[in-house]
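Limitations

Structures in this collection are predictions, not experimental determinations, and the ligand pose is part of the prediction. Treat each record accordingly. The example that follows, with adenosine-5'-triphosphate as the small molecule, is included so readers can see exactly what is and is not provided: the inputs are given verbatim, and the output is the predicted complex.
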Amino acid sequence: MIRLHNVSKTYHLKGSRDGAPPGVIEALKNVDLHVPQGQIHGVIGLSGAGKSTLIRCVNLLERPTAGSVFVDGQELTGLSGGALNQARHRIGMIFQHFNLLTNRCVFDNVALPLELMGMKRAAIRERVAPLLELVGLADKADQYPARLSGGQKQRVAIARALASRPRVLLCDEATSALDPQTTGSILALLRDINRKLGLTILLITHEMEVVKSICHRVSLISDGELVEEADVGDFFTAPRTRLGREFLNDFLQLEPPRALIERLEAAPGEHTHPVVRLAFSGDAVSTPLISRLARECGVDVSILQAKVESIQERTLGLMIAELIGTSGETARAVDYLETHDLHVEVLGHVQRDD
Ligand SMILES: Nc1ncnc2c1ncn2[C@@H]1O[C@H](COP(=O)(O)OP(=O)(O)OP(=O)(O)O)[C@@H](O)[C@H]1O
Ligand SMILES: [Mg+2]
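Predicted complex:
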């Protein structure tokens, strides 16, 4: 439904900036992205990574310097003027700060894109009323934005974005200005819209919570490049890049105790034991694997941290543990865990005092 092929975006500035060649910022570098119909795809990255530039290139609010953009089978980068405007009706967008018109009531904000399309008043009324119903604001049609909470304003923006019956919804940090509870209700609404209308959603965020709660798939952007892409369950189980692991560890707060980190050695020694990070899902969550591990491999397991997360419909168990035994026993224990579909990462080795 959305396809970016080798998209780059370079900004030319008048002044020069540290690090980059004078006056040139490569905000996107050779980005390839495919979001199939009906999917919710998240792009996560640090501030300045190029997230907004990426999403604005999808509807050509920014025109890519190179590469092509396809939405719903049509190449937008080949269009301009009226044809591009027409194609944009199939793409809705919502923003961090809602971008509502303060001098228009809720109804008229949602009606605006339809007025611009030249739709008749009666047809507009028929289109807007069910949208306000959908976003839970049927009783607020006559209110002005100043009287609404942040969550309500974003609901108006969502209804407005859906007014032209788009096939795709772009969300630029749509919940970043909202408190956690309101964020939850807006994400639930987006999930609901995705299911009910089969709408394809591309969202960008710097919050793992957003990725965890509604995305099917996630890409990581760093310095204008997509550096990792995965199904969300796989990403939370085992991110492949260092940046991915940093995002995940920050989010889960799952690190060995500081005192132990300081004692971690990269290579195994004669009297050291491995410290491992285990991630498991599916059947492994409800199987008593740790006690079996102790019995079958003869190791002791010291659990340093553990938590269970729900990601989409999957339950994911995460644990940091020290495996205590001879090097043969601990190697066998790692094998045992891997053959039982656990993801095992050896964080380092620690010297035992006893
Ligand atoms: N219109 C512009 N002119 C010049 N440089 C720009 C422009 N827009 C973005 N940039 C630069 O491009 C890079 C990527 O910016 P972008 O806004 O896409 O990042 P972002 O990931 O959305 O960041 P944030 O999380 O802070 O919103 C930054 O270095 C930014 O300064
Ligand atoms: Mg941004």
